[in-house]
Each structure stands twice: as C-alpha cells, then as structure tokens.
Amino acid sequence: WAVFPVFISMLGIIATSFVIVTFVRYNDTPIVRASGREMSYVLLTGIFLCYAITFLMIATPDVGVCSLRRIFLGLGMCFSYAALLTKTNRIHRIFEQGKKSVTAPRFISPASQLVITFSLISVQLLGVFVWFAVDPPHTVVDYGEQRTQDPMTARGVLKCDISDLSLICSLGYSILLMVTCTVYAIKTRGVPETFNEAKPIGFTMYTTCIIWLAFIPIFFGTSQSAERMYIQTTTLTISLSLSASVSLGMLYMPKVYIILFHPEQNVPKRKRSFKAIVTAATMSGKLTQKGGDRPNGEVKTELCESMETNTSSTKTTYVSYSNHAI
C-alpha cells in the first residue's frame, strides 16, 4: 500500500530539489528576482516537507517517529500557504492602496514579507508544542476487529496515538491559511497579469481546495473499515503530495522552463514605478465599472487610449519598485 505514495514522494523530492538547484544557480537572473527569491525559497521548503512527510507516515512507529509526525505533518503545508498568503495579501494591498493614493503601502519589502511569513508559521509550531505538553507522543496497539479473548492469539497494528480530531487540529491551521489565501486569490484575480503572479497562485489554490475537498470524505468514510489505518495514511500522504505537486507545477515549472530553454526571455523587464501600479489599479477599477454598460472591446480600447494619454502627458520620474516582486 505504501508503494504509490513513496513513488510520488520520491518524484516530488527530485523535482523540488531540481527547482531549488536551478533557482540557486540562476539566483541573480531577472525571472528569479521577479518571483521574490526569499519567499520562493520558503515556499519550496514547504513543498519539500510536504513530500518528505510520507516517509515519516510509513515508518515504524516509536516515540521519536510519532514526535516527528506531529511536528512536520502540518508544517509543510504551513510553510507553503503562509508564503502564498503573504504574497497574495501583498498584491492585494498594493493595488488597493494604488486606488487611493500614490503612496506605497507598508510592509512590502522582502524582509517584511519574511517576518510576516515566519510569524504565521510560528503559530503552527506553538500549537504543536502545546500538543506535546498536553498529550506527550506515544504508541498504541490497535487491535480493531482482530481482538480476541486470548491475548496470545490477538493481532494488532502498532501505531502512533493520534486521534482523527488531533490530526484535523494539526492540519486545521494550514487549511485556514489555504482558504484565506484562496480568498485573496479571488480578490486579486482582476489585477493586470503583467504586474504579478496572482493568476497562477489563484489556479494553484482552486486546484488545491478541490484536492482537500475530496480528501475529507475519503478519510472519514473509512472509519469503520478493517484497513482503516492504511487507507487513511495513503489518502493523507497522496493529498499532501498532490498539493505540493500543484504548487510546484503551476508556480515554478514555467519559470524553470524559461530559465533553461528560453534564456532570451530571461531579461530585465521595463522598470515599474508605483505610479504605474496606481494607473493600472485605476484602469482596472474603471474597466469593472464600465464593463456592464458597454461592449468589452470598446471599454478596453477607451481605457488603453486613456492610459497612453496619461503616460505621454507626464514626465515626472518616480521611484522604481522593480526590485520588489509584485
């Protein structure tokens, strides 16, 4: 039963390691810088942990293994979705601020983003430490339907003493981050695609939500099955691996493809000022307001002409934000 989860995890670990090596090697190229190097490495760490947890879940239970399961079970997802939530929140705040003024919002620097991300991750770690204090990890033998009156002939399964409720609580915070990130992805879906990676993040979150919606009935629907532990472990590990694969495939494989096979596209883009972001936010708002009254093509043409007029009429130099991934 463990062959398929291990196979997926091995492929995922190899692919994630390849992406990390590629990003490190081309660390100073425009595509890597534009994707937000610091946050990318945090997200890749989370993806790696999501794959690696499979080996802890199938290992022979003892106090050490049970302790590591508690720590890393939700940590990989927490790393991933804390990073994605911070990214989408940043995009949302930048364009919301751009609709109000030309002043950049606070806490959009890479250092600020790392502080926010690790603050979110620390909540998960705090919850795990509380879990350790309230209920120290240990193993139990689950006899299930194989319990007999004669203890010498009874056969059971050695497992970590983690109830379904404890498991859901461990994953609950990460799922909350995932849902919140999906909400922000929906809010930023109308942002011009030339300014950010909100759309790939959106597709990633929609797909991930579908995976976990399928996970819940399968996981809890096997509560009375004789093969309950094996089915639940397989379902959980495959769901984690699929979630990691979605993030890796949608967010990083296109970048790696361009870096390796189309280096001519890996060139610096035109520098963006915050004024340009303000203009894009304003035009996006106007497009939303006028879209219901006029044909789509007519509205876009009018707004494009308006943007060109505004661009040609101003000669003011603004501070560049090209070093910050948007």
TrEMBL record:
<feature type="transmembrane region" description="Helical">
    <location>
        <begin position="240"/>
        <end position="262"/>
    </location>
</feature>
<feature type="transmembrane region" description="Helical">
    <location>
        <begin position="6"/>
        <end position="27"/>
    </location>
</feature>
<keyword id="KW-0675">Receptor</keyword>
<keyword id="KW-1133">Transmembrane helix</keyword>
<dbReference type="InterPro" id="IPR000162">
    <property type="entry name" value="GPCR_3_mtglu_rcpt"/>
</dbReference>
<dbReference type="InterPro" id="IPR017979">
    <property type="entry name" value="GPCR_3_CS"/>
</dbReference>
<feature type="transmembrane region" description="Helical">
    <location>
        <begin position="107"/>
        <end position="134"/>
    </location>
</feature>
<keyword id="KW-0807">Transducer</keyword>
<dbReference type="Pfam" id="PF00003">
    <property type="entry name" value="7tm_3"/>
</dbReference>
<dbReference type="GO" id="GO:0005886">
    <property type="term" value="C:plasma membrane"/>
</dbReference>
<keyword id="KW-0812">Transmembrane</keyword>
<feature type="transmembrane region" description="Helical">
    <location>
        <begin position="165"/>
        <end position="186"/>
    </location>
</feature>
<feature type="transmembrane region" description="Helical">
    <location>
        <begin position="198"/>
        <end position="220"/>
    </location>
</feature>
<dbReference type="GO" id="GO:0004930">
    <property type="term" value="F:G protein-coupled receptor activity"/>
</dbReference>
<feature type="domain" description="G-protein coupled receptors family 3 profile">
    <location>
        <begin position="1"/>
        <end position="275"/>
    </location>
</feature>
<keyword id="KW-0325">Glycoprotein</keyword>
<keyword id="KW-1003">Cell membrane</keyword>
<keyword id="KW-0297">G-protein coupled receptor</keyword>
<dbReference type="InterPro" id="IPR050726">
    <property type="entry name" value="mGluR"/>
</dbReference>
<dbReference type="InterPro" id="IPR017978">
    <property type="entry name" value="GPCR_3_C"/>
</dbReference>
<dbReference type="InterPro" id="IPR001786">
    <property type="entry name" value="GPCR_3_mGluR4"/>
</dbReference>
<feature type="transmembrane region" description="Helical">
    <location>
        <begin position="39"/>
        <end position="61"/>
    </location>
</feature>
<feature type="transmembrane region" description="Helical">
    <location>
        <begin position="67"/>
        <end position="86"/>
    </location>
</feature>
<keyword id="KW-0472">Membrane</keyword>
<protein>
    <submittedName>
        <fullName>Glutamate receptor, metabotropic 8</fullName>
    </submittedName>
</protein>
<dbReference type="InterPro" id="IPR000337">
    <property type="entry name" value="GPCR_3"/>
</dbReference>
